[in-house]
Amino acid sequence: MLAELLLHPVLVLLVLTNLKLLGSSQPGSCIRATRWQGCLLGLLPFLAHSEDLTWRLAAAGLGTLALKGFVLPSLLSRALRDADTTREVETPAGYIWPLLAAMGAWGLAFWLGEQLPLAHAPSNLLVPAAFFAILSGLFLIAGQKPAVSQVLGFLVLENGVFTFGIGAVPETPVVVELGVLLDLFVAVLVMGIARFHIHGESGRREPDPWPGLKD
Amino acid sequence: MLLALLLIPFLTGLAALVVRPPGLRRALLPAAAAAHSAVCAAAWFHPPAPAGHGWLALDAPGQLFLSLSSGLFLAAACYAVGYLRRETQAATPPEDGLGFEPVPEAIFIGSLLWLLAAMTLVAVSQHFGLLWAAIGATSLAGAPLICFRGCRRSWEATWKYLLVCAVGIALALLGNFFLAVASAGAGAPARSLLLPELLAGAAGLNPVWLKAAFLLLLVGYGARMGLAPMHTWLPDACSEAPSVIFALLSGAVLNGAFLGILRIQQVCGAAGLGGFGRELLVLFGLLSIVVAAICIPGQADYKRLLAYSSVEHMGILALGVGLGGGAGYGAFLHTVSHSLAKAMLFLVAGHILFLCQTQLAAQVRGVRRLDPVAGWLWIAGFFAITGSPPFGLFVSELVILQAAIAQHRWVVVGVYLGGLALIFRGMAGVMLNMAQGEPDPRHARKDRTACLLANAPPLVLGALVLVLGLYLPPGLKEVIREAARLLGGT
C-alpha cells in the first residue's frame, strides 16, 4: 500500500529531473540530475511490483541503482574533469526553447499514453513519464551539440525506455535485463569523451585532400 | 552446428587478443573465416537442429543472410591480411598530433571476428530480444573497426556512428517492449518473444501495440540499416573506415538490421497487419532512393558515393518487401546481388585509395593504367551496382519494377525509375572518369604484389554477381523463394 502511494511521487520526481536536465546548462548539475534519476529508477521495481516482487526484479532494481545512480554518472563526471569540459555548455537552442519543447513533449507524452492504453499499469503516470523521458532524451541529443549533452540525452532516453520496460513488461524474461547493453553504449560514449576529448562538433564534412590518409 | 557457427569466430576473436606474433594473428582471420564458411556450407546440405530451447534456429531468411555474411567475411579476411601487412609497413605517427592513436591490430582483428559472431547470432536468432542484442553487438563490434586509423576525423565519425546506432537500438528495445505488451493481451501475462510462438498466436496480438512496435523497430533498425532519414552516420563512417570494413558493414551488417525489420513484418503479416507494415516500408524505401538520388550527383569523395549507393539499395530492399508479392522475391535476390557487388566495390575502392593516395574522385585518374584489373573491376562494379545487364542487380531491380507495375503503383514506378536514372548518371560521372585517362604521377604508386593480393577477392565477388545475373542455382532459388513466402510473397 505504501509502495503504491510512493510510486506516483517517484514518477513525478522523474519528470522533474527531466525538466531540470532540459533547462540546465551546467554539465555538473545535469549529471547530478541523472544521478537522481538513476536512483529513482532503481526504486521503481520495488514500488511498481511490491506485491509480486521476484528476485529477478529486485536484482534489476539494485543493479539499476548501482549502475545508473552511481557508476555511469561518476564515470561521466570523471570524463568531464579529464577532458576539462566542466564549463557551462552553450546550447544552440537557447534556454527558452528547451522549456517550451518540454511543455510540448509533456503534452505529447500524455497523448501517447492515452493512445496506447496499458492494461494493469501500476500507475497511470507510468507511460507518460516514460515517453516524456524518451522525448526529452531525443531533444537533448538532437538540440545540443556538445558531446556531454548528447551522452546525457542518451542516458535520459535509455532511462525512459527502462521506465516503460520495468513498469509494463516485468514478467517477460530476459528482455528487461538486455537493457544493460544500452549502458554499455553509454560507457563507450563516455570513454570517447574521456580518452579522446570528443566535443561532438562534427557535422557533415566535405572531403579534403588528406596527406596522411591510409586505407 | 549452430553453436559451432557462433563459437568459431567468438573464440578466435579471443585468441587474437593473446596471440603475439603478427603473422600468426593475421592468419587467424582467414582460418576462422574458412572454418565458418565450411560449417555454413554444410548447413545447406544438413539443416542444423534448433538449439537453446528454440531461441536459435536457421530458417530460409536466416540461412540466406548467414551465408552472405560468411562468404563476404571470407573475402574480406583474405583482403585484410594484405591490408594489415601494408598498414604495418607504412605505419606513420598520428597526423594531427592530438594524442589520437590507431587501434591496436589485436583489437582490430578481435573486433572483426566478434563482428562475424554477432552477425551469425543475428541470422540464427528466433527470439526478438536476442536478435536485438545481436544487432546491438554488431554496432559495438564495429566501433573499433571504424576508428582503426586513429585520427580525429575517424574518432568523430565513430562517435556519430555509435550515437545514431545507440539511439536506434534504444528505440528498437522500446519496440520489443511494445511487442511484449501486444502479445500479453488483455490481462494475460506476457508471452515470450519467440518468433514461432508470436506467429502461432498472431491472431491474439493487440493491433495498436503491434503497430507501435513495428514503427519503433522500423525506425530503430532502420537507423542501423541506413534507411533515410536515419542514414546520416553511414557516409561519415564510410569515408573514415578502412574499405575492407565497409565492404563488410555495407555488404553484410546492414542486412542484419534488415532481417530485424523482416522478422517484425513477418509477425505483422501473420496478425493481419501486413498492409500497414508494407506501406511504411514503401515510404521509407522511396525516401531512401530519393535521398540517394539527390546526394550522389556531385559527390566528390568516392567512398561517400558508395555509402550513398548503399542508402539507395537499402531503400530498394525496403521497397521490394513493401510492395510484396513477386517484389518480395526480388528483394531477397537484390540482397544477395547487392551485398556481393557492394563488397567488391569497397574492396576495389580501398585498393584505389592505396594506389592513388586520395579519396577525392577528381584527383583519381587512369586507374585502368595503374592497375588494369582494378580498373576493369571498378568499371564492371559501376555497371553492376547501377543495375545494368547482365549483372544480378538488373534482374532483381526488374522483378521489383514488374511488381510495382502489376500493382498499378504508378507513383512508386515513377519515383523508382527516376531515382535509378539520376543515380546512374551521378555515379557514371564519378566512377567512369576515375577509371579512364592518365594517372597523376604525383599521387600514383605501383605495387604489383599488393595488386595481386588486393584484386583476388573482389574478382571472385564480381564473378559471382555476374553469374547471378545469368544463372541462379536451384538451391539458392529455392531458399530465396521460401524466404519470400514467409513474408507473404511468392
What secondary-structure arrangement, pairings included, does this model have?
The complex is a heterodimer of chains A (215) and B (490).
Chain A: H1 2-23, H2 27-48, H3 55-83, H4 96-115, H5 126-143, H6 147-168, H7 175-178, H8 180-196
Helix pairs in contact in A: 1-2, 1-5, 2-3, 2-6, 3-8, 4-5, 5-6, 6-8
Chain B: H1 2-18, H2 22-45, H3 60-89, H4 105-124, H5 128-146, H6 152-184, H7 195-200, H8 207-225, H9 233-240, H10 243-270, H11 274-295, H12 302-323, H13 326-356, H14 367-370, H15 372-385, H16 392-406, H17 410-435, H18 448-470, H19 474-486
Descriptive notes:
The complex is a heterodimer of chains A (215) and B (490). Chain A is mostly helical. Chain A has one domain. Helices cover 72% and strands 0% of the residues of chain A. Chain A contains 8 helices and no strands. Chain A has helices at 2-23, 27-48, 55-83, 96-115, 126-143, 147-168, 175-178, 180-196. In chain A, helix 1 packs antiparallel against helix 2, helix 1 (2-23) packs parallel to helix 5 (126-143) and helix 6 runs antiparallel to helix 8 (180-196). With 490 residues, chain B is mostly helical. Chain B has a domain at 280-490. Helices cover 76% and strands 0% of the residues of chain B. Chain B is built from 19 helices and no strands. The longest helix of chain B is centred in the middle third of the chain and has 33 residues, at 152-184. Classes of the chains: A mainly alpha (215), B mainly alpha (490).
